[in-house]
Specification:
It contains 14 helices and two strands, in the order H-H-H-H-H-H-H-H-E-E-H-H-H-H-H-H. With about 325 residues, the chain is mostly helical. A hairpin with a 2-residue loop joins strand 1 (about 195-200) and strand 2. Helix 8 packs antiparallel against helix 14 (about 310-320). The longest helix has about 35 residues, at about 150-185. The radius of gyration is 23 Å and the shape is globular.
Length: about 325
Amino acid sequence: MITPETLHQILQVFRHFRDNHAAGMPLHRSYREAVRAVSAAHSITYQTVGDGCRRRLGLNDVSQLYELLAAWIRGDSSGLSRQLKDNADRSAHAAIDHFFTYGNSEPNVGTPTSLRVVLSDETEPLTFRIAVRDARMLKALAELEGVSASELTARIISTAVHDRMKVFARSIIKSAETRGSIQDSKKPSPQPHNQVMHNGRKRKVNANDKVHDVIAELVAMRDANGQSAVHVDISKLRANATNDVAARELQAGRFKNEYSARMTIHDACARRLRPDVKGIREFDELAGQWLRKGSMKLRDILLRHAHDPLQRADVIAFFADS
Protein backbone atom coordinates (compact mmCIF):
# COMPACT_ATOMS: atom_id res chain seq x y z
CA MET A 1 0.00 0.00 0.00
CA ILE A 2 1.22 3.48 -0.83
CA THR A 3 1.72 5.78 2.12
CA PRO A 4 -0.22 9.05 2.55
CA GLU A 5 2.96 10.97 1.78
CA THR A 6 3.50 9.08 -1.48
CA LEU A 7 -0.14 9.61 -2.46
CA HIS A 8 0.28 13.31 -1.75
CA GLN A 9 3.28 13.42 -4.13
CA ILE A 10 1.53 11.39 -6.83
CA LEU A 11 -1.48 13.71 -6.85
CA GLN A 12 0.87 16.68 -7.05
CA VAL A 13 2.49 15.10 -10.12
CA PHE A 14 -0.89 14.53 -11.74
CA ARG A 15 -1.97 18.11 -11.12
CA HIS A 16 1.27 19.51 -12.55
CA PHE A 17 0.89 17.13 -15.50
CA ARG A 18 -2.62 18.41 -16.17
CA ASP A 19 -1.52 22.06 -16.03
CA ASN A 20 1.51 21.41 -18.26
CA HIS A 21 -0.57 19.60 -20.87
CA ALA A 22 -3.28 22.25 -20.78
CA ALA A 23 -0.58 24.84 -21.55
CA GLY A 24 0.30 22.97 -24.76
CA MET A 25 3.16 20.72 -23.61
CA PRO A 26 3.26 17.20 -25.16
CA LEU A 27 1.98 14.38 -22.95
CA HIS A 28 5.29 12.64 -22.22
CA ARG A 29 7.12 15.90 -21.51
CA SER A 30 4.21 17.14 -19.36
CA TYR A 31 4.67 14.11 -17.13
CA ARG A 32 8.46 14.35 -16.93
CA GLU A 33 8.36 18.05 -16.07
CA ALA A 34 5.70 17.34 -13.42
CA VAL A 35 7.93 14.70 -11.81
CA ARG A 36 10.86 17.13 -11.84
CA ALA A 37 8.77 19.87 -10.19
CA VAL A 38 7.54 17.61 -7.39
CA SER A 39 10.96 16.05 -6.75
CA ALA A 40 12.46 19.55 -6.50
CA ALA A 41 9.69 20.71 -4.16
CA HIS A 42 10.28 17.79 -1.77
CA SER A 43 14.09 17.66 -2.20
CA ILE A 44 13.98 14.03 -3.32
CA THR A 45 15.22 12.33 -6.48
CA TYR A 46 13.39 12.15 -9.80
CA GLN A 47 13.56 8.34 -9.57
CA THR A 48 11.80 8.31 -6.17
CA VAL A 49 8.84 10.30 -7.43
CA GLY A 50 8.73 8.37 -10.72
CA ASP A 51 8.77 5.09 -8.81
CA GLY A 52 5.74 6.24 -6.82
CA CYS A 53 3.83 7.00 -10.00
CA ARG A 54 4.62 3.67 -11.64
CA ARG A 55 5.80 0.72 -9.53
CA ARG A 56 3.88 1.67 -6.41
CA LEU A 57 0.72 1.98 -8.49
CA GLY A 58 1.21 -1.60 -9.69
CA LEU A 59 2.28 -0.60 -13.21
CA ASN A 60 5.01 -2.53 -15.00
CA ASP A 61 6.01 0.17 -17.48
CA VAL A 62 5.70 3.93 -17.87
CA SER A 63 3.76 3.37 -21.11
CA GLN A 64 0.91 1.99 -19.00
CA LEU A 65 0.87 5.21 -16.99
CA TYR A 66 0.91 7.29 -20.20
CA GLU A 67 -2.19 5.41 -21.40
CA LEU A 68 -4.02 6.19 -18.15
CA LEU A 69 -2.96 9.85 -18.27
CA ALA A 70 -4.03 10.13 -21.91
CA ALA A 71 -7.46 8.74 -21.03
CA TRP A 72 -7.75 11.17 -18.12
CA ILE A 73 -7.10 14.27 -20.21
CA ARG A 74 -9.69 12.98 -22.69
CA GLY A 75 -12.22 13.01 -19.86
CA ASP A 76 -12.04 9.44 -18.55
CA SER A 77 -10.42 9.39 -15.09
CA SER A 78 -11.83 5.98 -14.10
CA GLY A 79 -8.69 4.00 -14.95
CA LEU A 80 -6.32 6.32 -13.13
CA SER A 81 -8.65 6.62 -10.14
CA ARG A 82 -9.06 2.85 -9.92
CA GLN A 83 -5.29 2.30 -10.08
CA LEU A 84 -4.81 4.71 -7.18
CA LYS A 85 -7.56 3.14 -5.06
CA ASP A 86 -6.34 -0.40 -5.69
CA ASN A 87 -2.97 0.51 -4.21
CA ALA A 88 -4.02 2.92 -1.46
CA ASP A 89 -5.66 2.42 1.92
CA ARG A 90 -9.44 2.73 1.94
CA SER A 91 -9.12 5.79 4.17
CA ALA A 92 -7.53 7.62 1.22
CA HIS A 93 -10.32 6.85 -1.28
CA ALA A 94 -12.28 9.99 -0.38
CA ALA A 95 -9.22 12.14 -1.11
CA ILE A 96 -8.76 10.42 -4.48
CA ASP A 97 -12.42 10.97 -5.38
CA HIS A 98 -12.11 14.61 -4.31
CA PHE A 99 -9.07 15.08 -6.56
CA PHE A 100 -10.82 13.84 -9.69
CA THR A 101 -14.14 15.54 -8.91
CA TYR A 102 -13.33 19.05 -7.70
CA GLY A 103 -11.00 20.61 -10.22
CA ASN A 104 -8.32 17.96 -9.58
CA SER A 105 -7.41 19.62 -6.29
CA GLU A 106 -6.13 17.68 -3.33
CA PRO A 107 -7.40 17.82 0.25
CA ASN A 108 -5.35 16.68 3.21
CA VAL A 109 -4.35 13.04 2.69
CA GLY A 110 -2.36 12.59 5.85
CA THR A 111 0.42 15.14 5.43
CA PRO A 112 0.50 18.29 7.54
CA THR A 113 1.12 20.69 4.65
CA SER A 114 -1.36 21.64 1.97
CA LEU A 115 -0.66 21.15 -1.73
CA ARG A 116 1.57 23.97 -2.89
CA VAL A 117 2.14 25.52 -6.28
CA VAL A 118 5.83 25.23 -7.16
CA LEU A 119 6.95 28.76 -7.99
CA SER A 120 10.28 30.20 -9.00
CA ASP A 121 12.73 30.87 -6.18
CA GLU A 122 12.78 34.47 -7.37
CA THR A 123 9.47 35.99 -6.31
CA GLU A 124 8.36 39.47 -5.43
CA PRO A 125 5.44 40.47 -3.18
CA LEU A 126 2.76 42.67 -4.75
CA THR A 127 -0.15 44.43 -3.07
CA PHE A 128 -3.29 45.38 -4.99
CA ARG A 129 -7.04 45.74 -4.54
CA ILE A 130 -9.85 43.98 -6.43
CA ALA A 131 -13.64 44.24 -6.34
CA VAL A 132 -15.37 42.58 -3.39
CA ARG A 133 -17.33 40.25 -5.67
CA ASP A 134 -14.15 39.13 -7.46
CA ALA A 135 -12.40 38.55 -4.13
CA ARG A 136 -15.24 36.29 -2.96
CA MET A 137 -15.12 34.29 -6.20
CA LEU A 138 -11.34 33.97 -5.90
CA LYS A 139 -11.58 32.63 -2.35
CA ALA A 140 -14.30 30.18 -3.37
CA LEU A 141 -12.21 28.88 -6.27
CA ALA A 142 -9.16 28.55 -4.04
CA GLU A 143 -11.14 26.50 -1.54
CA LEU A 144 -12.47 24.22 -4.30
CA GLU A 145 -8.95 23.68 -5.66
CA GLY A 146 -7.48 23.06 -2.22
CA VAL A 147 -4.93 25.90 -2.32
CA SER A 148 -4.64 29.30 -0.65
CA ALA A 149 -6.10 32.40 -2.28
CA SER A 150 -2.60 33.84 -2.67
CA GLU A 151 -1.32 30.72 -4.45
CA LEU A 152 -4.28 30.69 -6.83
CA THR A 153 -3.84 34.42 -7.47
CA ALA A 154 -0.17 33.91 -8.31
CA ARG A 155 -1.05 31.14 -10.77
CA ILE A 156 -3.78 33.20 -12.47
CA ILE A 157 -1.57 36.28 -12.70
CA SER A 158 1.35 34.26 -14.10
CA THR A 159 -0.82 32.83 -16.87
CA ALA A 160 -2.37 36.22 -17.66
CA VAL A 161 1.00 38.00 -17.74
CA HIS A 162 2.49 35.41 -20.10
CA ASP A 163 -0.54 35.64 -22.41
CA ARG A 164 -0.42 39.43 -22.37
CA MET A 165 3.31 39.39 -23.07
CA LYS A 166 2.73 37.23 -26.14
CA VAL A 167 0.14 39.68 -27.45
CA PHE A 168 2.51 42.58 -26.81
CA ALA A 169 5.40 40.79 -28.51
CA ARG A 170 3.30 40.03 -31.59
CA SER A 171 2.30 43.69 -31.86
CA ILE A 172 5.96 44.74 -31.68
CA ILE A 173 6.89 42.20 -34.35
CA LYS A 174 4.10 43.32 -36.67
CA SER A 175 5.00 46.99 -36.22
CA ALA A 176 8.73 46.37 -36.70
CA GLU A 177 8.21 44.22 -39.79
CA THR A 178 6.01 46.92 -41.31
CA ARG A 179 8.72 49.53 -40.76
CA GLY A 180 11.40 47.12 -41.91
CA SER A 181 9.68 46.42 -45.23
CA ILE A 182 9.78 50.16 -45.96
CA GLN A 183 13.37 50.64 -44.83
CA ASP A 184 14.69 47.56 -46.68
CA SER A 185 13.89 49.11 -50.03
CA LYS A 186 16.29 51.97 -49.19
CA LYS A 187 19.22 49.84 -47.96
CA PRO A 188 22.01 48.88 -50.40
CA SER A 189 23.94 45.56 -50.20
CA PRO A 190 22.66 44.04 -46.95
CA GLN A 191 24.86 41.72 -44.88
CA PRO A 192 24.49 37.94 -45.25
CA HIS A 193 21.40 36.50 -43.56
CA ASN A 194 20.28 33.12 -42.40
CA GLN A 195 16.69 31.92 -42.08
CA VAL A 196 15.10 31.23 -38.69
CA MET A 197 11.60 30.17 -37.78
CA HIS A 198 9.52 32.40 -35.55
CA ASN A 199 5.86 31.77 -34.76
CA GLY A 200 5.60 29.41 -37.72
CA ARG A 201 7.20 31.67 -40.35
CA LYS A 202 10.72 32.25 -41.69
CA ARG A 203 12.57 35.46 -40.97
CA LYS A 204 15.93 36.73 -42.18
CA VAL A 205 18.47 37.12 -39.41
CA ASN A 206 21.85 38.82 -39.70
CA ALA A 207 24.66 36.28 -39.84
CA ASN A 208 26.37 37.99 -36.89
CA ASP A 209 23.23 38.13 -34.76
CA LYS A 210 24.32 36.91 -31.32
CA VAL A 211 20.83 37.33 -29.84
CA HIS A 212 19.22 34.82 -32.18
CA ASP A 213 22.22 32.50 -31.86
CA VAL A 214 21.70 32.40 -28.09
CA ILE A 215 17.95 31.82 -28.53
CA ALA A 216 18.68 28.94 -30.92
CA GLU A 217 21.06 27.51 -28.33
CA LEU A 218 18.42 27.77 -25.59
CA VAL A 219 15.79 26.13 -27.79
CA ALA A 220 18.09 23.16 -28.39
CA MET A 221 18.88 22.92 -24.66
CA ARG A 222 15.22 23.09 -23.68
CA ASP A 223 14.18 20.44 -26.19
CA ALA A 224 16.99 18.07 -25.20
CA ASN A 225 16.18 18.54 -21.52
CA GLY A 226 12.50 17.80 -22.14
CA GLN A 227 13.33 14.55 -23.92
CA SER A 228 15.44 13.24 -21.04
CA ALA A 229 13.87 11.41 -18.11
CA VAL A 230 16.91 12.01 -15.92
CA HIS A 231 18.76 15.09 -14.75
CA VAL A 232 21.25 16.24 -17.41
CA ASP A 233 24.31 18.37 -16.63
CA ILE A 234 23.78 21.89 -17.96
CA SER A 235 27.27 22.16 -19.49
CA LYS A 236 26.67 18.96 -21.46
CA LEU A 237 23.29 20.22 -22.61
CA ARG A 238 24.87 23.45 -23.81
CA ALA A 239 27.80 21.72 -25.55
CA ASN A 240 25.44 19.38 -27.40
CA ALA A 241 23.18 22.31 -28.27
CA THR A 242 26.16 24.22 -29.70
CA ASN A 243 27.01 21.27 -31.95
CA ASP A 244 23.39 20.89 -33.08
CA VAL A 245 22.91 24.58 -33.87
CA ALA A 246 26.28 24.84 -35.59
CA ALA A 247 25.55 21.78 -37.76
CA ARG A 248 22.18 23.18 -38.77
CA GLU A 249 23.60 26.60 -39.65
CA LEU A 250 26.48 25.02 -41.56
CA GLN A 251 24.04 22.96 -43.59
CA ALA A 252 22.01 26.10 -44.30
CA GLY A 253 25.10 27.69 -45.85
CA ARG A 254 25.72 30.33 -43.21
CA PHE A 255 29.28 29.12 -42.47
CA LYS A 256 32.11 27.83 -44.63
CA ASN A 257 33.29 25.09 -42.26
CA GLU A 258 32.37 23.23 -39.08
CA TYR A 259 35.00 24.94 -36.91
CA SER A 260 33.77 28.43 -37.84
CA ALA A 261 30.18 27.41 -37.15
CA ARG A 262 30.94 25.94 -33.71
CA MET A 263 33.14 28.85 -32.60
CA THR A 264 30.58 31.49 -33.64
CA ILE A 265 27.72 29.79 -31.80
CA HIS A 266 29.92 29.13 -28.76
CA ASP A 267 31.20 32.73 -28.65
CA ALA A 268 27.65 34.09 -28.73
CA CYS A 269 27.16 32.50 -25.30
CA ALA A 270 30.69 32.66 -23.88
CA ARG A 271 32.12 35.96 -25.05
CA ARG A 272 29.72 38.22 -26.90
CA LEU A 273 27.33 38.85 -23.99
CA ARG A 274 30.03 40.61 -21.95
CA PRO A 275 30.06 42.41 -19.57
CA ASP A 276 26.73 40.87 -18.46
CA VAL A 277 28.05 37.32 -18.90
CA LYS A 278 31.74 36.95 -18.13
CA GLY A 279 32.25 33.50 -19.61
CA ILE A 280 30.77 30.14 -20.50
CA ARG A 281 30.48 28.98 -16.88
CA GLU A 282 28.35 31.98 -16.00
CA PHE A 283 26.22 31.40 -19.10
CA ASP A 284 25.68 27.77 -18.06
CA GLU A 285 24.63 28.94 -14.59
CA LEU A 286 22.14 31.43 -16.02
CA ALA A 287 20.80 28.88 -18.51
CA GLY A 288 20.38 26.36 -15.70
CA GLN A 289 18.45 28.86 -13.59
CA TRP A 290 16.14 29.53 -16.53
CA LEU A 291 15.70 25.87 -17.44
CA ARG A 292 15.22 24.51 -13.90
CA LYS A 293 13.65 27.44 -12.05
CA GLY A 294 12.16 29.75 -14.68
CA SER A 295 14.61 32.59 -13.98
CA MET A 296 14.34 35.58 -16.34
CA LYS A 297 17.88 36.91 -15.78
CA LEU A 298 19.01 35.63 -19.18
CA ARG A 299 16.02 37.28 -20.85
CA ASP A 300 16.92 40.64 -19.31
CA ILE A 301 20.52 40.28 -20.50
CA LEU A 302 19.45 39.46 -24.06
CA LEU A 303 17.10 42.44 -24.07
CA ARG A 304 20.03 44.68 -23.16
CA HIS A 305 21.98 43.26 -26.11
CA ALA A 306 19.09 43.46 -28.58
CA HIS A 307 19.67 46.41 -30.89
CA ASP A 308 16.46 46.50 -32.94
CA PRO A 309 12.71 46.00 -32.30
CA LEU A 310 12.60 42.61 -34.01
CA GLN A 311 15.32 41.22 -31.76
CA ARG A 312 13.58 42.56 -28.67
CA ALA A 313 10.24 41.14 -29.81
CA ASP A 314 11.76 37.71 -30.43
CA VAL A 315 13.42 37.67 -27.00
CA ILE A 316 10.13 38.60 -25.31
CA ALA A 317 8.13 36.07 -27.33
CA PHE A 318 10.61 33.25 -26.74
CA PHE A 319 10.73 33.59 -22.96
CA ALA A 320 6.97 34.12 -22.79
CA ASP A 321 6.44 30.84 -24.68
CA SER A 322 9.02 29.04 -22.53
